[in-house]
Design a protein that fits this description.
- It is a single chain.
- With 167 residues, the protein is an alpha+beta fold.
- Helix content is 25%, strand content 32%.
- It contains 5 helices and 10 strands; from the N terminus they run ββαββααββββββαα.
- The strands form 3 sheets. The chain has a 6-stranded antiparallel beta sheet with strand order 8-7-6-5-9-10, sandwiched between helices. Strands 1-4 form a two-stranded antiparallel ribbon.
Length: 167
Amino acid sequence: MTETLATRLNCAALILAAAFSFAAPGSPARAETIIDVRTADAEMNAAIAHARETLPTFWASYEAPKPSETGHSLKVRFPTGGSRGEHIWMADVKKLPNGGYSARFANQPRDLPGKRVGDLVEFKQADISDWMFMRNGKIVGGETIKPLLKSMPKAEADALRARMEQP
């Protein structure tokens, strides 16, 4: 059984990473690359664990971003049946008074019937599987992107790698 860790890296993956923009409802859908990863994939699970451990870095920037920090985005797991789930990037993140969060789908969900890019949804912190934002034009975070680079076309992976901040 595979779990869709649909990072939903657009064919121009840099568009999402650089701008965290999403198409307006009703606008033409962009082509997307969807990469399925087994639930038991050790490298991906380690990336998710690391992203969750470093989530305070995201929240610190979200709460008090420097002028060079923009585009705060979360990857969230949504159940799709049984033990399956779809992980998808979310834009326009907001903290809610009840302790939860809301955000808009940054990509077209594949396995969430009736949900569309731009739809506003709510979720809990336990559902967050990754985070990222831009700092000086570089991607900070994005841990779950790293294991997927080997599954992408070399030119696309190299271009995305060049956009990621190196520790």
